Amino acid sequence: MNALLEGLLFGLTLTVMAGPILFALLQTGIEQGFRSGMMVALGVFFSDVLFVAAVYFGLNYIQAVVKMEGFNLILGNVGGIALIFIGLGTYFSKPPQIPVDNFFSKKETREESKEIPSEKIISFFKLLFKGFLVNTLNPFTFFFWGVIAAGKLAESGFSKNEFFLFFGAILFVIITTDMLKVYLAKVIRKYLKPGNILLVRRISGVAFVIFGIVLMVRVIL
């Protein structure tokens, strides 16, 4: 039971952190709706699952890599450059066309129930990859899984079942709260005009660039 409760607390700690993932979820949810926002959330979730698997199969190796000289510098610069490019692409690209009058009309609901065209499937995979990339290249993600969570695991002496309870609880909180964030974006979307949605994209783009620059400055100084 302690492993489950501690996992829930760790998950809540991680999810309240405002960062590039939050902006990616809100921006996508506002521009493209709940389903597209969930693809970004799933990308983040798959990335976290890989980190959990890495911790499970190579705890000592991960801790050694994280402590390697120059690791933070390399990760910070790579992650920072990636976030800057994502931010510039977000800022200078146009949001998808969205009906002005009623974002949640019956017509839209009927269209969503139709077969998804191949272009939409490709778009979903791009969003999935976006969530995966933003989370994987975020140095805080490495720090959380490689240092905080792995350190907790090493000192707790959890059994195999307790390990799955601990990390399962963290992943459950992450995917649940990410869904809530996307749903919030969907609700906000209802009250926004196309000009406001463009502004949201601009703000998200600037935020990504700022996060990228801050990451690079922190590891260099």
Task: Please specify the SSE layout and strand pairing.
Blueprint: H1 2-15, H2 20-32, H3 34-57, H4 59-66, H5 71-92, H6 106-113, H7 118-136, H8 139-156, H9 160-189, H10 194-220
Summarize the structure.
This protein is mainly alpha-helical. The chain has 10 helices and no strands.
Could you please describe the fold and organization of this structure?
By secondary structure, the protein is mainly α. It has one domain. The chain contains ten helices and no strands. The termini are far apart. Mean pLDDT is 77; it is low at 99-113.
Query: Count of helices?
Result: 10
In terms of quaternary structure, what is this? Answer: single chain
Number of DSSP-assigned strands: 0
Structural shape: globular
Q: What summary fits the major beta sheet?
A: none
Q: Indicate the structural class.
A: mainly alpha
Q: Percent helix among the residues? A: over 70%
Order of helices and strands: HHHHHHHHHH
Q: Report how far the terminal alpha carbons are from each other.
A: 42 Å
Number of domains: 1
Radius of gyration: 19 Å
Mean pLDDT, as a whole number?
Answer: 77
Poorly predicted spans: 99-113
Give the percentage of residues in beta strands: under 5%
